[in-house]
Design brief:
single chain, 41% helix, two-stranded antiparallel sheet, mainly alpha, 7 helices, two-stranded antiparallel ribbon
């Protein structure tokens, strides 16, 4: 049963505790008519091919993989990408096609993370384990990037059988990750997370230092060992571009939330 997030009590707006639906497909192909969903939160939700008519999105805040979305007949993604490139000129360097460009891109990644790690280092460790708006903490973001490197470099490109650090943190949609050797329930000290992260950053740097264009264009065979991504032939370049995208995206999340923590909210 759908429970609205807003109701009336005594003529005033009343905000009951938020109802949580998790791991459910009960809304697939549902038709929601004249429903108040103001202040609802959608996290890790598949909204592919959703059609909305006559909706109010005033003040809405959307983060995600947005492709083919049209607002009032206008495709949004190209406009968003162009604006992000204007605000963050370094993004243009994070779409490399050559071995030299890939090394430059990784240097850019290391540069913006170095500044952010210094900024984070000025905060008490407890703040770096704090969640903002139920998102990952700063420490958890670093743990996720450990997992990303293990997945897309060590597993997909290098074909290692068990590359996953136990402190790596997969995205919520991953299931069966215990078979990879990761412990999503771990609550490690920040120093351990930073050490694992530094090793992964160095592993990408070292791989790229020796990589030729042929290495990047070579189609790597599917890795049958348990892990992510699913077995499929891929070029090293395509896998590294996934890492670059994850690095930039999660850096944006990290600095956004650091600002909130620093403000004491």
């Amino acid at each position: 049963m759908w429970v609205p997030t807003r109701a009336k009590r005594g003529g005033e707006a009343y905000h009951p505790p938020m109802t949580r639906y998790e791991g459910s497909d009960q809304f697939r192909e549902a038709e929601l008519v004249d429903v108040d969903m103001s202040r609802a939160v959608f996290r890790e939700v598949d909204l592919s091919e959703v059609r909305m008519r006559g909706v109010l999105l005033t003040g809405a805040d959307i983060d995600g993989d947005i492709r083919g979305l049209r607002l009032n007949g206008v495709e949004v993604a190209p406009l968003v990408e162009a604006e992000l490139d204007r605000r963050h000129p370094e993004r243009a360097q994070l779409r490399p096609t050559t071995a030299g460009g890939m090394r430059t891109a990784w240097a850019v990644v290391e540069s913006f993370w170095a500044a952010t790690m210094q900024r984070a280092g000025r905060l008490p460790e407890a703040d770096l384990h704090r969640s903002v708006d139920e998102e990952w903490s700063f420490a958890q973001t670093l743990r996720h990037l450990v997992f990303v490197t293990d997945a897309w470099l060590s597993h997909a490109v290098l074909g290692e059988a068990r590359p996953f650090h136990p402190l790596g943190l997969p995205a919520a949609f991953h299931t069966g990750t215990e078979a990879y050797g990761v412990d999503t329930s771990a609550q490690p000290e920040l120093a351990d997370v930073v050490a694992a992260r530094a090793e992964r950053v160095a592993s990408v740097r070292d791989f790229l230092a020796a990589a030729t264009q042929a290495d990047l264009d070579q189609v790597r065979p599917a890795n049958p060992a348990p892990g992510w991504p699913p077995p499929q032939p891929r070029t090293a370049a395509s896998c590294l571009r996934v890492i670059l995208n994850e690095e930039w995206t999660h850096h944006q999340f990290a600095v956004r939330d650091l600002a909130v923590v620093e403000a004491g909210r």
